[in-house]
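Q: For a teaching session next week I want to show students how multiple molecules come together into a single three-dimensional assembly. I've collected the sequence lines for a complex. Could you give me the predicted structure tokens for the whole thing so I can convert them for display?
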Amino acid sequence: MTDLEEPALHSPLEARHAALGARSIAFAGWFMPVQYSGILDEHRAVRERAGLFDLSHMGELFVDGPEAGSALAAALICDPPSLAIGRAHYSMICAPDGGIIDDLIVYRLAEERFLVVANAGNASVVSDALAERLDGFAAVLDDRSLATGLVAIQGPRSREALAPLTDVDLSALRYYAIAEGEVAGVPALVARTGYTGEDGFEVFVDTARTGELWDVLLDATRAQGGVPVGLGARDTLRLEAGMPLYGNELDRMTNPYEAGLGRVVKLAKPGDFVGRLALEKVARDGPGRRLVGLVVEGRGIARHGYPIHVGERLAGQVTSGTQSPTRGVPIAMGYVAPGDAEPGTVVDIEIRAARVPAKVVDLPFYRRPG
Amino acid sequence: MVPSDLRYTNDHEWVRLEGDTATIGITQFAADQLGDIVFVELPDVGRSLDQFAAFGVVESVKAVSDLFAPLSGDVTATNPGLAASPESVNSDPYGEGWLVRIRIADADQLGELLDATAYDDLVAAG
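A: Of course. Below is the structure for the complete assembly, covering every listed component.
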């Protein structure tokens, strides 16, 4: 490995991951754990008990000022001024042509203070785009991506694990809500968000104190029968939950309507925003292709980039696929022509030399009980 | 140390020769590197394999990896347990997790494979 290939960015928890025996990889410019005990074991722990994730690579962008809300409304496809304090939106930042630059979570922390969480691989692009789009508004961008550590605890027992360690009232903290408090004595923002399809929490702290937070949360996770979880199981968990991954389901060539996420485009909000004209046209005309769930019915696992056929016609392409640990069948997501997107439609996925039958199904593949 | 009675390829397959029958699998190192194996695609009985040519695929949750034949020969059996329990490749790669059996075409090809010491050196060198 040459110096050029060395990831430039390192999690504050890197030594802890190594001590836990994690296998780590370069991911979005960071050196991050892909697995500890094994993807299937970690996946099942999150579905049945709890899992602890290091997400310090995510980008944290704070926006402050009297016009912070209206500036973000002009920059993003959501409507931040309509958010109550302490609530969040899943959203996106789009290009003028409606293509997705990144998918985001926007939290309203105070009347004039918002937190935008971006994917690691896009954090600097989003930061630059926001800085440009906020120009002229009474709003200031503070990119605290490197100053902020993020640890997520996810799974049906995550609340039991976290509650004794924090002054935040977790039973009052709703899904897609955020509150300020302390966790294990560390000042933190605690959000009820995640990327697994389970109940869970994301805890934002100063990078310098991420280690002490992790140590206490790992003990609490283990006390609930949980384990540390790497990026490998994070991917299988989100795929079962039907959640898109930027770079697979979402990219600059894709608009939110194609991804089945038209509901996050707030066309009814007042004022212009970047991408409005293009997105209004897609909303009017309908998307040119649609993201669907697929269950492979023959033998084989569909992977990113595999062609999808209907009869002799090329109908689209797989964006993500794996063997579903929970359902025990190969699942995938992919784009197909709108006419092929109806659940029940039978397609063929080209897996190496073979055409393997698969059925279009409703997303998600997994919904948590209760 | 890997089993001393087997021969190995640079691509991390092993082969056990008994008479003119060779049993083929992947090494513990390969299984560990792949992680949890969830799918194995093997050739039909009767197909002939060429030494060092791809003959199948093993997939973990994250990765797809080609299998390469250590020796030339005709497939006489495939492991019937792998369809239901592909994880046995992880848990017992030299035993229950075997992949295929072939009737070998040319015993001299064995000379082109690594012995256990040479394979251990290959793994140690990364």
